[in-house]
Amino acid sequence: MQVAIYADRDPGGKKLIATLQRRLKNEEIRAWQVHKKAPFTLVHSGDRYTKIRVTFVPAGTPTFSRAARAGALGAFRNPEPALLATISEGPSADRVLGFLVGMLTRHAGPLGVSGVGIPLSASASKR
Question: CB of 114 within 8 A of CB of 7?
């Protein structure tokens, strides 16, 4: 399951990821924990959601290009999003999707998020 993240003044999503890392470190956002720095991966801190991972891939990277070619962006192909967040599969992935979208909208100003899209195409829903 993918989430297209738009950041108007941050085409590569680097500022968004750096701000997100800083806010997590300063505990301004407490519901998430950093799992890996490269690629930037978060896990939700709730006990039943710890196996579901959210990996952020910036535009212009090979992983982003592969996902775009495979149709993972669906209707959000143009304009190209700054980041693509991929939520790993699992029984609570839909809940984690809700948590992710909630966090991105709640902190949209400081993170520089201008929009969020959830591709619902057949090829995107298989991931």
Answer: yes
Could you read off the pLDDT of 33-60 as tens digits, one per residue?
Answer: 999 998 999 998 878 788 899 999 998 8
Bridge partners, residue 84, by sequence: 4, 57
Query: Does the CA dihedral 13-77-93-90 come out positive or negative?
Result: negative
Sign of CA dihedral 87, 92, 94, 98: negative
Distances, alpha carbon 103 to alpha carbons 30, 63, 70, 74, 107, in Å: 10, 24, 27, 22, 6
pLDDT tens, position by position, 19-30? 999 999 999 988
Question: 61 with 86: CB under 8 angstroms?
Answer: no
Instruction: List all residues 6 or more positions away from 16 whose beta carbon is below 8 Å from its beta carbon.
Output: 5, 7, 10, 82, 83, 111, 112, 113
